Amino acid sequence: MFSEAPRFVRQLQRSETLQRGLAQGIRFGLDVIAGSQEAPARALPPGRPISSNFVPTAHRARRVSYSPALDGRADPGEIVWTWVVYEDDPNRGKDRPVLVVGRDRSILLGLMLSSQDHHRDDPNWVGIGTGSWDYEGRASWVRLDRVLDVPEEGIRREGAILDRRTFDLVAARLRAEYSWS
């Protein structure tokens, strides 16, 4: 880990996405402090593939297995961050964590996460607790009824590995309710 850290920092320093995000964040912060801007509309990010295709979970049914490996490729059981368009407005979206549950070549199959407590009693969501994917340490829920196609090159970063027991809970619901095997 210590030997890889300097290389990782150099890669981050050369990242155009990181530089653009930092510049936008600084500009927005200064505008808010000056009182000259409301929260920005979240438009589609330029230059990066986005997760804009989603289908009902049963339509993408396949074998689900836990196989995370921190090898630079996202695998089932890992939580990654990507831009996901809103269902009701495909011209806008949000950078959010997604649980990888499968893959079609370079397209990941993901289930989006939310930290909104109102999902607690929604039958289409399952609680997965807290983890390093949420920097505020909030409890999270995974949406089961919609699978996102996530272009692998659209992943912003690896967020975390979901523990096996919790992944198995998500997988059991996919098998029982959505015909996954």
Question: Short summary of the structure?
Answer:
This protein has 181 residues and is an alpha+beta fold.
Describe this structure in words.
This protein has 181 residues and is an alpha+beta fold. The chain has 2 domains: 1-41, no CATH class; 49-178, SH3 type barrels. 24% of the residues lie in helices and 30% in strands. The protein has 3 helices and 8 strands. It has helices at 5-14, 16-34, 164-178, and strands spanning 53-56, 78-85, 93-104, 107-114, 125-129, 140-143, 146-151, 155-161. Strands 1, 2, 3, 4, 5, 6, 7 and 8 form an 8-stranded antiparallel β-sheet that branches. A hairpin with a 2-residue loop joins strand 3 and strand 4 (107-114). The longest helix is centred in the N-terminal third of the chain and has 19 residues, at 16-34. The chain is globular, with a radius of gyration of 17 Å. The relative contact order is 0.19.
